Amino acid sequence: MNLHVRNFKTDDMARRRRNKSGGTAYLLFIGKVFFFGIAIFGVVTLRISINEKIERLNRQAVLVKVRIHEIDREIENIKIDRERLTCWPHIKKKVEAFKLALRFPSPEQVHPLLDGIPGRRDLTREKTRDVSKR
Amino acid sequence: MTRNDAISTRIKIMCLIFFVVLAWLAFHLYEVQITRHDELYGKARDTYTSVKTKQGKRGEIYDYDGNLLVGNIPCFDLCADPEIIGDEENCRIAAGIIAKELPELKKDDLVKRLMKKTRNSEINGKPVGIKNNYAFIASNVELKTAKDIEDALKKKKIKGISFKETTKRYYPKNELLANILGFTNIDRDEVIAVIGLEKFFNEFIKPSSSEIHYERARDGLPLSYGWQNKIDDAKDGMNVYLTIREPIQAILEEELDKLMDKWKPRAAYAIMADPFTGSIIAVAQRPTFNPNDRKSMLDPDAWRNRITEDIFEPGSIMKPMAVAGAIDSGIVTPNTSFDCENGAWFYGGKMLRDSHPLSLLTVSQIIQKSSNIGTAKIALKMGERHLYYTLKSFGFGDKTGVPLKPETSGIFRPLKKWDTLSITRFPIGQGIGVSPLQLVRAYCALANGGYLVKLRMIDKLENPDTGHIIKIPVKPGMKIFKNSKTHQQIVSMMKLVTQKGGTATKAAIDGYQVAGKTGTSQKVINGQYSHSKFFASFAGFVPADNPAFVLFVTVDEPQGAEYGGTISAPAFREISERTLRYLDIKPDVLSTVVSK
Predict the structure, then answer these.
(1) Which site among A60, A77, A109, A123 would you substitute to test the B interface, given the most B Cβ atoms closer than 10 Å to its Cβ?
(2) Pick from A55, A79, A104: which is nearest to B581 by CB?
(3) CB B494, CB B320: distance < 8 Å
(4) Closest-CA residue in chain A for B176?
């Protein structure tokens, strides 16, 4: 018959030691989980916030693009208006309406002015000879 | 049964129920996810997917200096959703706002359209009324008007009117160059080019469109993280730059209008070209039309391109070409004399007459006085073959190649089909049909020293997306004259035409030497030469020795007079005088006097 004598005092101390180290590990584990949880939460929150910002900026960009498009159309409209207003038939109508006493100069009037500039004659000839050369 | 047995039975029943429900859910899941996947996915996709069509801009047409001749004016198409607008009161307010800004629309008619909440349809052959979500209101509403309507509707908090962006082809200069530019029509949202450059360059100037499919948010804006599918790329059409110069074109058209008022002809046309490059600087015809006003386009005769499609017997305008050929080959000199038979000469069984009795004239005087008999005798001296190749070398019988369709090549019989009279009639512009452009090309050759230049109307094409430019080059012309003195001699003769004793003294311009030739030709009516219907023409260039341009003016059936020297020559002078001033060309006669 085997008899084993247990020392209750030693057992209790060992259990306490085991419990103590197990509690620390548990706390450490909880701490890690908490930390990772917080980290994941932070990343996800950051991602959501960035996404939200991206979305907000994207919407602003779309609205700006729409506005640019509208302005482009307004510019196009103004360009057409300018062309209409600057064409000769329109100007002529205005000259007649305001009775502006405009008349063409006679060749005698232009001659002295042109003759005073050396080389002007050739320049003018060249200019008119090839109207297609820019 | 013990209590435990009862509990066990209940548990089994519950398990069975759970199992059945689970099985049903699994079956439903299978049906939703697998069997009806495509159908349901399609429905969901339709809800959150939008399709946006983007249309490029049709290419614009500019003059040489970049003045816009044809553009696209932004505007809106207005339509309504009668369901959204709501009750009659709202419809009346909306109709009132729209009718105020667009007076051509009647308020009552608009109210009727907006109040039509259902429309008739058929389902399985039975007539049913279905919701009406679309009512057309107006097309091509101007930007400002549309904005005013939108603001007024917003103020009254009325919803259901939508503004669809669109563009309208617009010609800011109205009638200016209308026949050359042409116009477009709209057929089910598609632009159809009808005539003119619009049609000729349609393949270059028409835009392409794109379709974008995208996932959208509730407000309709695309989701940044959603998918996008773009089909093709919307590209603008190419811009076309002409050789036309708008200010000169305006001068030409204004003077042509004066000509029409004065002589009340059936038609009139004028062409101005640079003799050295062949660039057409201005071209106009009457009658014409305003491409912005459809009412002015009811007569197709007004939009026909007479300068390329029409042929006419040029009359005496042909003489310088025939005489130049004779001088160039040394058959005659400017001083060679011919007997002009006192105005009537019987040849080949037919009488040939001059407008005035003339006796012995030199070749120079024959051109100055425009003697038919003298010219016919010069041609006889040249011989048929020589005359044929001379006229052929000036481009008669060949198309000019300008970018306008259809273009006639005229009527110039091949040598083997000539009869006895051909040699005496063709050099005086009878029995030969030419287009105004062919004549201008021939006169360019007379003005530039004898080079048959290719006429140009397009200076360059520009891709607005990339800025890439395709320049249309000036092609060197084939040399006609073999003798270096021919040009100077023929120009000297043509100068006499506008001087005292010539047929076109009214074409003379103070301070400038003008070289030209008149032409008066009888029209052929039912195979007979008419004695009351004429073409009165004048073609010339100025300054004669260093020409800035060649100008040709023709009047078809003028009333009250018939001669080119009376009708077209003054118009030539007016147009030339104003153009010379615009181009800043120094007076050549005055400078010669001063330098002496």
Answers:
(1) A77
(2) A104
(3) yes
(4) A89
Query: Cα separation of A15 and B359, whole Å?
Result: 151
Question: A134: pLDDT confidence band, cut at 50, 70 and 90?
Answer: very low
Contacts of B297 (CB under 8 A, 6+ apart): B183, B289, B290, B291, B303
How far is the C-alpha of B490 from the C-alpha of B494, rounded, in Å? 6
Where are chain B's structural domains? 52-102+131-225+233-242, 246-291+303-595
Q: What is the CATH number of domain B246-291+303-595?
A: 3.40.710.10
How far B284 CA lies from chain A's nearest CA (Å)?
Answer: 15
Q: For the purposes of burial, counting CB atoms within 10 Å of the CB of B256, is it exposed (0-12), middle (13-18) or buried (19 or more)?
A: buried
- Number of neighbouring beta carbons within 10 Å of residue B21: 10
SS3 for B139?
A: strand
Residues of B in contact with A92 (CB under 8 A): 254
- Residues B149-192: tens digit of each pLDDT: 999 999 988 888 999 888 899 999 989 999 999 999 888 778 88
B532-584 pLDDT per residue, tens = 889 999 999 999 999 999 999 999 999 988 888 899 999 999 999 999 988 88
pLDDT single digits (tens) B476-519: 888 999 988 999 999 999 999 999 989 999 999 988 999 999 99
Residues B515 and B518: their CA atoms lie apart, in Å, by 10
State whether B173 and A106 contact (CB < 8 Å).
Answer: no
Q: Is the pLDDT of residue A118 over 90?
A: no
Q: At what angle do helices A88-97 and B246-263 cross, to 10 degrees?
A: 60
Q: What is the ipTM of this complex?
A: 0.77
Nearest residue in chain A measured CA to CA from B166 = A73
Nearest to B325 by CA among B412, B415, B369, B386: B386
Q: Three-state DSSP class for B123?
A: strand
Coil, strand or helix: which one is B348? coil
* The token pair that represents B212 in the structure block: 């974008």
Identify which of B68, B144, B549 has the shortest CB distance to residue A79: B68
Are residues B586 and A124, on separate chains, in Cβ contact within 8 Å? yes
Report the CATH number of the B52-102+131-225+233-242 domain: 3.90.1310.10
Q: Please write the tens of the pLDDT for every residue from A45-58.
A: 999 999 889 888 98
Question: Which range, of B65-69, B523-527, B539-543, averages the lowest pLDDT?
Answer: B523-527
Q: What residues of chain B, 65 to 124, have a C-beta less than 8 Å from chain A?
A: 67-68, 71-74
Given this chain, do its domains B52-102+131-225+233-242 and B246-291+303-595 carry the same CATH topology? no
Q: Which pTM does this prediction carry?
A: 0.81
Residues 227-246 of B with CB under 8 A from A: 243, 245-246
